[in-house]
């Protein structure tokens, strides 16, 4: 506020605070329009949404704080919300109140009024509340809360302009709200005694910090005297009240909330919304039908994402293919052939890896945004928590694991719904064990090559189950070591069912997709170019024979193609990737792999399906592989079924593709976890494959 | 044949008439009045009403008899009465006088299902001497001095029954989370439903829905309240 007085072009920061599910983000979207910007708060993966715009000649920055139930700073979201409010940059705070659930929303108000900032209240969903037969006394409410109250509607945007006007007006007068919260004579006396020791603070801040100390929150900058008095008083008040002090403080806040709610709300009729939610729940959470309905819904989501996403994915791929072919044709080989190769094979390939996922990701986020905004996502966690808890995970971990069957990248991005770091990271680290669609192409090549038709289904089933068992095992291992401790409590709101607007679902979807493109995309592109370089350099100039001449003399086109493929194999063998395969050979020899498998595995890091193409190249069958049956026959000549199984097992468990690593880096905000995942999984894969291969050799199974 | 439910008073009359009619004197107005501790004139009025319903045969100054329909009703009430008294004395171990008083009050409202299941519980205990012995020892600990009411963990509160939160016996961040979500002492709470797999549960508190695991709910003490949600 001090800055406003001095700068010529005053800037007003407005913070939007409120409970989760209060419709805060919809209001933000209405007010921010096209100006919004999504980022992260520094150091944490909590999303920061903000928007800058000018209204009535004043430059305004509107920040959507994370939705919280409390400002005690017990979670990263609460820390951010509290710190932003207290940072001193905020001219005014808007608290969004869900009019249909006023009592619990006002609990946050009780804490907010102690912050000493001007507060405007948005009575959101007031239309819904009116339908429920609730009538509000707005002037009285404003008087009791110490700030103007503006009725709003998140689905139509009604009232948002009046809300901004009220916020600007309040900011101009700069009148901070006064707290009407009274904790009772005894506690109030203790608060005064503690507050005295905060000498540098003003009265409001001293009181707030005193209350926080009594609430058991650590305050490293508090004077020693204050901490001592607080500790003594906490013991005394606990004894006197007969229950923990933080419980007594919460009771007082809820006393305030209930008091205000009773004063300002008049119920004239029946609770329509509550009844509707209960009716829907009695179907969707039915004792018998709840789970089948859930499975059916997931089937629909899955199909939506991976079947509807397929055609646009093909269009993008064929479009890029056309572009690459076109470039190949018009760009003469004589001019900068390396740059051409970089563009065609590296950049276009890399961009393809990024945006060919985009249709899937958009559809997935559309489905997730819809399920979240309707309120069903909380129910999914409710339905699945029993099973997931046994695995050491949280009910909300289920959706990411399921999505992982299609693709691990969106699966890891879907872990954002998990609030607690322990649960979220465990879920991120085990989701790659679930066989994704790309790994299916490897199984589709290898299984028919090595196994009799009647065994094929079983082998495939076994591979998928192995992945799931590995995920469970590693999850339990992680929970026992790195992420030791209780699973996060399941104390979670089941919000009322609401029909989301397409606008809010669309914005929700686009925000996340854009983030994927920006952050994961750049990393994927970089790794693609790197892999291109590894597969291109050093370039071979002298071959074992003169292929150009031989091809010119070839009798049939088949013979020429054969020669071209042989040349390609020789080229690959000479490159760093080819050499890496050879360097790796001693390491992967115990697993029954030779350098050719090693080369294919390095290539598979770009994308799992590359494994198939690389095998085609190293066996001189050409990249397209022509007929996959030729490749299968060649494989059958060179490897035993046991080796085939080992390859599949290794591909299943080993280093996930670079996109997974990139997205892990982005979602954990740390290269440590991303690389840890890479090495950890590769180690797990090596050990498992070694055990299986050696056991197989020992028992003489599948060695012929 | 289904008999319409009579008033408690009418049931008492029929039961008394049945008992007296089995004595040599038969059931006479004066004796009925003495048994039920009311004025003979009241008895006359009541008997007329019962006669209109086709339950008794009655001529002034003669013995009162039961019609077949009246006898059936009277037998049923009397059966409930003795079944309840047996349960109260043998299973619950009440003194005969107390059991008689309680049975008189309960016989009118206890449904056939209640009486039958009480009987089954008594049979079950008699058939299992080991359990009976344990039960006999346990029932001695209750002297009828404790304040009535049921207090349990929230996980044991049956769906549809309201409870008042007495205490939140949790430590640390879980307690903070619970109280800030509004589960504070004194608040009304009800279990709305249990997840299909048996855990977690959904409760209603302060006008909204909250889910928690049973292990978490078990540490919230609630006192059960009468009436269904």
Write up this protein.
The complex is a heterodimer of chains A (704) and B (229). In chain A, 63% of the residues lie in helices and 8% in strands. Chain A is α/β, with parallel strands linked by helices. The model of chain A is unreliable at 1-10 (pLDDT under 50). Chain B has 229 residues and is an alpha+beta fold. Chain B is built from nine helices and eight strands. In chain B, helix 1 crosses helix 2 (29-36) and helix 4 (68-91) crosses helix 5 (96-106). The longest helix of chain B has 24 residues, at 68-91. Chains A and B meet through helix 4, helix 11, helix 12, helix 17 and strand 10 of A and helix 8, strand 5 and strand 7 of B. Strand 10 of chain A pairs antiparallel with strand 7 of chain B, so a sheet runs across the interface.
Secondary structure layout:
The complex is a heterodimer of chains A (704) and B (229).
Chain A lengths: L1 H5 L4 E8 L5 H9 L3 E5 L6 E9 L2 E7 L11 H11 L3 E9 L3 H11 L6 E6 L1 H6 L2 E3 L1 H8 L3 E3 L8 H14 L11 H11 L7 H12 L9 H18 L3 H20 E3 L4 H13 L5 H17 L3 H21 L6 H19 L2 H17 L1 H15 L7 H6 L4 H6 L7 H10 L6 H14 L2 H28 L11 E2 L8 H33 L12 H7 L3 H18 L1 H13 L6 H10 L5 H9 L9 H11 L2 H13 L4 H11 L2 H29 L5
Helix pairs in contact in A: 4-11, 8-9, 8-10, 13-16, 14-15, 15-23, 16-23, 20-22, 21-29, 21-30, 22-30, 23-31, 24-25, 26-27, 27-28, 30-32, 31-32
Chain B lengths: L7 H14 L7 H8 L3 H13 L3 E2 L7 E2 L1 H24 L4 H11 L5 H16 L1 H11 L11 E3 L7 E8 L3 H9 L7 E7 L6 E5 L2 E5 L1 H4 L2 E9 L1
Antiparallel strand pairs in B: 1-2, 3-8, 4-5, 4-8, 5-6, 6-7
Helix pairs in contact in B: 1-2, 1-4, 2-3, 4-5, 4-6
């Amino acid at each position: 506020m001090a800055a406003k007085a001095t700068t010529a072009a005053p800037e007003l920061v407005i913070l939007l605070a409120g409970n989760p599910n209060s419709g805060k983000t919809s209001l933000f979207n209405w007010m921010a329009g096209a100006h919004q910007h999504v980022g992260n708060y520094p150091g944490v993966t909590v999303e920061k949404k903000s928007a800058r715009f000018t209204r009535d000649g004043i430059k305004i920055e509107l920040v959507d704080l994370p939705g919280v139930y409390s400002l005690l700073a017990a979670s990263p979201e609460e820390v951010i919300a509290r710190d932003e409010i207290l940072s001193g940059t905020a001219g005014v705070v808007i608290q969004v109140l869900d009019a249909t659930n006023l009592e619990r929303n006002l609990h946050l108000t009780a804490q907010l009024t102690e912050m000493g900032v001007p507060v405007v209240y948005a009575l959101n969903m007031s239309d819904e509340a009116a339908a429920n037969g609730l009538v509000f006394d707005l002037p009285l409410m404003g008087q009791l809360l110490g700030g103007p109250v503006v009725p709003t509607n998140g689905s139509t945007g009604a009232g948002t302009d009046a809300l901004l006007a009220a916020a600007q007006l309040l900011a101009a007068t700069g009148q901070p709200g006064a707290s009407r919260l009274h904790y009772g004579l005894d506690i109030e006396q203790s608060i005064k005694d503690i507050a005295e020791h905060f000498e540098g603070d003003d009265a409001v801040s001293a009181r707030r910090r005193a209350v926080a100390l009594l609430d058991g929150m650590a305050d490293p900058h508090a004077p020693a005297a204050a901490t001592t008095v607080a500790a003594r008083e906490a013991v005394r008040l606990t004894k006197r009240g007969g229950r923990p002090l933080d419980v007594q403080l919460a009771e007082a806040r809820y006393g305030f909330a209930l008091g205000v709610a009773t004063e300002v709300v008049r119920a004239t009729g029946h609770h329509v919304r509550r009844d509707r939610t209960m009716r829907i729940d009695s179907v969707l959470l039915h004792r018998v039908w709840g789970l089948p309905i859930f499975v059916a819904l997931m089937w629909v989501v899955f199909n939506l994402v991976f079947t509807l996403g397929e055609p646009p994915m093909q269009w993008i791929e064929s479009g890029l293919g056309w572009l690459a072919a076109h470039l190949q044709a018009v760009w003469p080989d004589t001019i900068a052939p390396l740059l051409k190769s970089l563009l065609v094979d590296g950049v276009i390939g890399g961009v393809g890896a990024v945006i060919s996922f985009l249709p899937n990701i958009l559809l997935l986020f559309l489905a997730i945004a819809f399920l979240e905004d309707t309120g069903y996502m909380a129910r999914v966690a409710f339905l699945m928590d029993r099973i997931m808890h046994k695995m050491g995970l949280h009910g909300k971990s289920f959706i990411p694991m399921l999505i992982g069957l299609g693709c691990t990248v969106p699966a890891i991005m879907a872990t954002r719904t998990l609030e607690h770091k322990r649960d979220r990271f465990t879920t991120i680290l085990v989701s790659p064990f679930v066989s994704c669609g790309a790994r299916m192409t490897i199984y589709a090549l290898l299984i028919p090559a090595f196994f009799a038709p009647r065994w094929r289904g079983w082998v495939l089933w076994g591979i998928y189950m192995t992945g799931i068992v590995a995920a469970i095992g590693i999850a339990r291992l992680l929970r026992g070591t790195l992420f030791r401790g209780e699973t996060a409590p399941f104390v979670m709101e089941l919000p009322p069912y609401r029909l989301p607007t397409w606008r809010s679902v669309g914005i929700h979807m686009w925000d996340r997709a854009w983030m994927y493109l920006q952050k994961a995309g750049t990393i994927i592109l970089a790794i693609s170019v790197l892999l291109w370089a590894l597969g291109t350099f050093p370039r071979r100039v002298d071959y074992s024979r003169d292929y150009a001449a031989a091809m010119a003399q070839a009798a049939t086109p088949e013979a020429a193609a054969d020669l071209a493929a042989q040349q390609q194999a020789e080229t690959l063998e000479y490159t760093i990737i080819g050499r890496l395969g050879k360097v790796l050979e001693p390491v992967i020899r115990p697993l029954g792999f030779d350098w050719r498998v090693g080369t294919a595995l390095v290539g598979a890091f770009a994308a799992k399906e590359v494994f198939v193409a690389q095998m085609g190249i190293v066996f001189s069958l050409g990249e397209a592989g022509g007929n996959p049956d030729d490749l299968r026959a060649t494989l059958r000549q060179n490897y035993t079924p046991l080796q085939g199984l080992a390859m599949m097992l290794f591909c299943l468990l080993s280093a996930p593709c670079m996109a997974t690593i990139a997205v892990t880096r982005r979602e954990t905000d740390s290269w440590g976890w991303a690389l840890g995942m890479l090495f950890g999984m590769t180690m797990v894969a090596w050990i498992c494959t070694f055990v299986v291969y050696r056991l197989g050799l020992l028992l003489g199974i599948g060695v012929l | 044949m289904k008999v319409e439910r009579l008033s408690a008073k009418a049931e008492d009359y029929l039961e008394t008439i049945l008992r007296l009619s089995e004595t040599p004197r038969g059931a006479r107005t004066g004796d009925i009045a003495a048994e039920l501790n009311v004025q003979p004139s009241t008895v006359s009025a009541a008997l007329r009403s019962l006669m209109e319903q086709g339950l008794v045969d009655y001529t002034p100054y003669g013995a009162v008899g039961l019609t077949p329909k009246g006898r059936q009703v009277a037998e049923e009430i009397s059966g409930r009465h003795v079944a309840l008294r047996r349960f109260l004395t043998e299973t619950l171990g009440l003194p005969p006088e107390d059991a008689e008083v309680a049975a008189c009050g309960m016989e009118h409202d206890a449904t056939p299902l209640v009486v039958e299941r009480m009987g089954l519980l008594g049979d079950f205990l008699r058939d299992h001497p080991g359990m009976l012995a344990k039960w006999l020892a346990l029932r001695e600990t209750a002297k009828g001095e404790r304040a009535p009411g049921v207090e349990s963990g929230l996980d044991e509160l049956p769906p549809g029954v309201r409870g008042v939160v007495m205490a939140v016996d949790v430590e640390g961040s879980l307690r903070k989370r619970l109280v800030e979500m509004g589960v504070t002492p004194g608040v009304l709470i009800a279990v709305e439903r249990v997840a299909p797999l048996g855990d977690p549960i959904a409760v209603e508190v302060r006008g909204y829905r909250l889910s928690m695991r049973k292990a978490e709910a078990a540490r919230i003490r609630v006192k059960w309240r009468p009436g269904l949600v």
